[in-house]
Amino acid sequence: MRICLAIFCCFSAVSLYAQDMWADLEGKSSVPLSSMVQMAASSSFQASSPVLSSSSAALLPALSAVLVSGPPSPVPQPSSPLVVAENSPAQAPPARVIVSSSSFSPSSSSMSSSSARSRKDLLGPVRVSRVRAIDEMKGKYKSPRKALFLSLALPGAGQIYVGGTTANIARGIAYLATEAVLGGLWYHYSVTLYGQQVTKYETFARKNYSIGKYETGVFSIFTGLSDRNKEIQFAGLYLSDRSDYCNAIYGSNQNHCADTTLTTGAAHRDAFAEDSSLGESIQRNGGFWDEQTFFRIIGGNNYVLGWDDVDSIRTASDLQLIPPVSWAPLGASKSHLEYLAMRQKANDYANYQAYFLGGILLNHIVSAVDATISAYAHNKGLYEEKVTLMERVHFDSYVDFGGVVSGAVRARLEF
């Protein structure tokens, strides 16, 4: 009887241990586990010691029922013990095994194993991959295209939009500061100083230049020429831009001013007195048609006779108007040279804008490219963890006991 109770306790422990692996074993084995347990239990008990009584053999069906029934359901266990063995010295009736049908649920095991097999059949082998999600603590996704166009419109705006690091913000501020400095320098030199210099040389010309004086002087030289050939040569050398000169004063109605023979321009000469300054002439005529062009033309060497301090005036006989023909200045004037210097300084201010505008354009392009790269680097950092240099260094060592003890340590850097 004791042997039966020991065998029963062992099988009960095995049954509880097999509950967790029941479904897996059921799926891997072609023979149902319940049949295997029944066969093993029957053969074991039949081949056991011959001293087993008939009452002990009665336990076989009950033990088989316990193992075959499957894992227990989560229903609370009954208060009464599962196994009650009664024995008395006077009488030894057959042991009774009480099995509670509510303690075991064969259907739960079969449903679990069948659902597992169905999932496996439907999905096939499952491959697990480790994909890192965006780390919201590092920031949000930034569009490289948006960063590009922001910096194209306003340098530094793309870097500030990407943000994320102090370096991005600092570069954005640097691009903005560069834009402000270049824009300020362009306005200062090419607008403010240039405008002041233009006003300066125009005021100087209005005071020190006279159209009447120039017309009188050039007409005096022209009338002193001895023949028509010299007149043609003189007109080609000293009156080549007279049409532009007259057009700047009158526009389309030139009042015979553009006549290079100077014989029909009496009305034009009479309109400007020799002792009248350019400022007085402009005011008397109500302004010129194109004053900017006029101020440019009188800076030429052929119009030196109109300056108030002109001297060394040449006569017709001083000019080389027969082959080989050569050009020579009609006079000399310090005011003319001073006027030319003021105009050159104004032109220098105007030319500075090429450097400033070129720098502004380059700043836009560089800032846009940098903003795009910064956005890509920012987005890449949301998925990747930064590895320090020390974490990339690995050390290998070995000891050799062959004959003489020796060893070595090797360091390698991974990228």
Keywords summarizing the entry:
mainly alpha; two-stranded antiparallel ribbon; 415 residues
Tell me what the structure shows.
This protein is mainly α and 415 residues long. Among the domains are: 2-123, no CATH class; 190-343, no CATH class. It has 17 helices and four strands. The chain has helices spanning 2-17, 22-28, 33-46, 54-57, 59-68, 106-123, 144-153, 157-162, 166-208, 211-223, 228-238, 242-250, 266-270, 278-284, 291-297, 334-383, 389-392, and strands at residues 83-84, 96-97, 393-400, 406-413. It has a two-stranded antiparallel sheet. Helix 2 (22-28) crosses helix 6 (106-123) and helix 3 packs antiparallel against helix 5 (59-68). It is elongated, with a radius of gyration of 56 Å.
